[in-house]
Write a structure and sequence with these properties.
Helix 4 packs antiparallel against helix 5 and helix 6 packs parallel to helix 10. This protein is mainly α. The C terminus is likely disordered. The chain is built from 16 helices and four strands. 23% of the residues are buried.
Length: 430
């Protein structure tokens, strides 16, 4: 750590101690103007053996205990880095270097699980109803389902999920470690819109490291930190995915994409259904919808697509009705072919298609084809009557050669019939 960074941290530690209570709000607003303070504090947290680590953790806890929202957010922005320091030290089995970090995290947890009167909090969440509009759907686009959901909502059957009350914790154990860390990530995600880009980057790095350490993907990511596998829970990964989604949509596209892939990789290995469901849903939405802004200084938001009220079904779309109509047309064409064969005395005349042109065959081998003036008749003859012709789209592609072949065939059969002395059946008499 550089001497300049150390001086910045020491000045920050001394300022708050002599600050009167009336000036806390003004002091909290002025922290944003100290651009060199946050990077210096990150360096202190990353150095587990730094002499400034313990006073820094104590100062951050005092910020959070003050109740000032801006000071609490200032402390929360270092939460991902604090979590990684705790987990990495725990994996290295060196608990003596993480005592101050454990005390800070437990202090924040114990403050958050109680209200101002010291009573345990019970967090509640109402499951969204399809009968009420949201940024994800419109009830009018659902149809009759909205009526059923609306009837249930009117009877007060909305489902509410409760979390809590949570127990006070005095120390970290193998049983309660991720219960506490998951709750802390929940508090962090509640203030995501206030987090600076450095904090979002730290969250993505935490997610990747926790999920790949000790697995083959660590070599692919070229991470040379600890190689011990870290135990995780499904709830912990879900909270990580929530933060990653926000980071991805607010400038951290590359880090967010890698972190999401690493979390899904670990969720597949552990067979965590909740993490797989949320992660794959977010990944699918990110592939189908482009991120409109990569500006890190822009508005904090998550891109969503509102379902339009108008139907998106095209008129030319293939539906069951169009398929049924197509089958009817094909069936009618087959019936017409059978009737024509019966009219010819049951004699089946083979159809030889040289040019790919299809049409009704007459007894002498001529075919009925459409003329430019709208009339139909055999090749080479002029008829005053009209007949229905089964048009094949391929017939429009025939050229002069195809017409010549049909003309020669018609003349040849006419000569044969005249030589035998029999009149051609179905021919027009001049």
């Amino acid at each position: 750590m550089l001497a300049m960074d150390q001086g910045v941290v020491e000045d920050w530690l001394s300022e708050f101690k002599t600050l009167p209570d009336s000036a806390v709000s003004t002091y909290a607003a002025s922290l944003k103007e100290k651009g060199s303070l946050v990077p210096a504090l990150y360096k202190v947290i990353r150095e587990n053996y730094s002499d400034l680590l313990e006073p820094v953790c104590h100062q951050l806890f005092e910020f959070y205990r003050s109740g000032e929202p801006q000071l609490q957010r200032f402390t929360l922005q270092f939460l991902p880095e604090l979590l990684w320091s705790l987990l990495s030290v725990s994996a290295a089995r060196d608990p003596h270097t993480s005592g101050c970090i454990e005390a800070l995290l437990l202090g924040i947890y114990n403050l958050e699980i109680v209200d101002k009167d010291g009573q345990s909090k019970v967090l509640s969440f109402t499951v969204p109803s399809l009968s009420k509009p949201s940024v994800y759907h419109e009830p009018s686009a659902i149809g009759s389902i909205a009526l059923t959901e609306g009837a249930l909502a009117n009877h007060g059957l909305s489902k509410v999920v409760y979390s809590g009350p949570h127990l006070q914790r005095e120390t970290f154990t193998a049983q309660n470690r991720f219960e506490v860390l998951t709750f802390l990530l929940l508090c962090y995600n509640a203030s995501l819109s206030y987090m600076i880009p450095t904090s979002l980057q730290s969250l993505c790095q935490l997610s990747s490291r926790v999920c790949i350490c000790g697995y083959p993907r660590q070599q692919m990511r070229r991470y040379k930190g600890i190689s011990t596998r870290l135990t995780v829970t499904s709830e912990f990964l879900v909270q990580l995915i929530t933060g990653i989604h926000y980071a991805f949509c607010n400038g951290e596209v590359e880090l967010g994409s890698k972190a999401l892939d690493d979390v899904l990789y670990r969720a597949q290995l552990e067979l965590f259904p909740e993490a797989l469901l949320v992660g794959n849903a977010i990944k699918s939405s990110l592939h189908s919808a482009a991120v409109k802004s990569n500006n890190k200084e822009g508005a904090r938001s998550i891109q969503v697509e509102i379902t339009p009220t108008s139907s998106r079904i095209s008129r030319n779309a293939v539906t069951s009705l169009s398929i049924r109509g197509h089958r009817w047309k094909r069936h009618e064409s087959q019936e017409v072919s059978v009737d024509s064969e019966a009219a010819l005395g049951g004699v089946a005349i083979p159809e030889i298609s040289v040019t790919g042109v299809s049409g009704e065959r007459m007894a002498n081998g001529d075919s009925l084809r459409q003329r430019p003036d709208g009339r139909t008749g055999p090749d080479g003859d002029i008829m005053t009557t009209t007949s229905e012709v089964s048009l094949d789209p391929r017939g429009h592609d025939s050229g002069t050669r195809g017409q010549e072949v049909r003309r020669q065939k018609s003349v040849r059969r006419l000569v044969e019939n005249e030589g035998s002395g029999s009149a051609s059946t179905g021919r027009s008499q001049y």
